Amino acid sequence: MPSFDPNIYWQSYPDMLELHALGHWTDAEFTGHWENFGRHEGRRVADEADVPVDWSDWLYFSEWRDEFGWWWRQGALGSMVWSALVSGDNGLEFGRISRNERVRELTGLSPEALRQIAEHGRAFPGRGPLSQLRNEPLPWSTDAGVVLPIEEQVTDRFPSGADVVIILPSLRVGGAELVGAWHAHLARRAGLSVAILLADKSGVSPVHEPLRDAIVDLPELCEAATGRGWTDLTVETRTEVVTHAVAALRPQVMHLCHSWIGYTALATPHLARRLRASAATIHVSAFCHHVHATGNYDGYFRYIPEIVEWVDRFIFDNEWYCAEIRERYGLPEERTVALKYPVAELPSPAAMAAAAANPRASNTVLWASRLDHQKNPQVVGRIAAEMPDLDFVIYGSEILYDTRVDWAAMPQNLRYGGPFSSVDELPTDEAFAFLYTARFDGTPNILLEMGARGVPVVAPKICGIPDFLGPDWPFYVPDCDDVPAYVAALRRLHEDPSERAKASARLLAILRAERSFDSFADAGMTLLDCDPGRKSA
Hints:
With about 525 residues, this protein is an alpha/beta fold. It is about 40% helix and about 10% strand.
């Protein structure tokens, strides 16, 4: 591998260039970023062959601040393109400056840019790029037939706007969705009006029905208004819809929570400017990175260099990831916060005492989560094979389809219970232990829910899990694939009722001390520096 060269690193990974240019790192610190994070993300130091031919052109024109430079950065140069399109000159050549000796003013045009420029040239003959277009998209970039009807419906639903707007992928089952719902309940506790924009998928889980009057299901509205499916629209149109909806609501706080469309809008400069102008404060939630089966790190954190200038506060569900991101991107501490999200329902003190005094006596080990690489479901079969006297039951569904569980190869004492949409559907009363085998995670809500039911937890000591269980939980395993350690922890719980009773009592005590909604509200209210006033219809 070639020796590390910061210039090559910038050229190959321009997402880091702007942060370096803003002075977040010296050259030595930038080298350290590659060593500490870049390699984990699957980045490598490029060699000369990896540097784009037109890199020097990009670097040169990126320093231009006039209309010419702006159009170049959009993928089009003005003067000769304009005249050629208007005059119908079919001899126009395309290509990067460094590769085109005859026409040095031109760069490659995307079909969308070509269409927009041609349309503008015909509508306004003789006029070149307009300076005001730096801050607004061309009118042909948006399908007005989609945007306008939805914007009108949002305005009709919330004629006075909303104090808080929360952008979510959907309100189906999921940790991010639950976090968004908690922030909606928090805003209502503060006396603020709330609108929840579903920006990626349609659908609301029954558990979120109490928020129904605040939900704006953009995919559903789109199909009803236009007869076109949400995913049939271009990404550009969907981000425009979300941006227009936020502008119509004029919130004091906009909170983006793991929506891909929302992140894409905030990472698009002209949309980010409009979002920033529409919302007094912008918050962004982050939970943990994603580690692919190849070992490469990935996730929404990769957007931070593109969105950091627009965001007031990054909100985490655990201290570990909060510290990780502060170090990774040089974020000041005052722009980050880690919250302890509550459990949906805490048992009464009497019920807690009864659960702790009567530890479950059964042979069943429960596992429930997504059947994806992150959650490591395959290891359960290896654990079950070592404990034939116990019964193992797995609940969950494939979401990312990045791994496959071979049920036929599982031991006879393991069965698949099927998908679930609520913890209430799981046989928690029949289990003496809950087995959690994730490779990486934030603070998993499923562990909080198991703790609220008094089910002892066996889990790896990774990432944000100690934010709930604490640093010295007695049933940690040192590694997510350590089968003997899982077996030993489960055996201790199965054979010793006093161990189960102590574990159950400790879980319930942690939840009551740290994970009530009142505790969450006390910490979260500081993020809602708003004046109640707008009341949604």
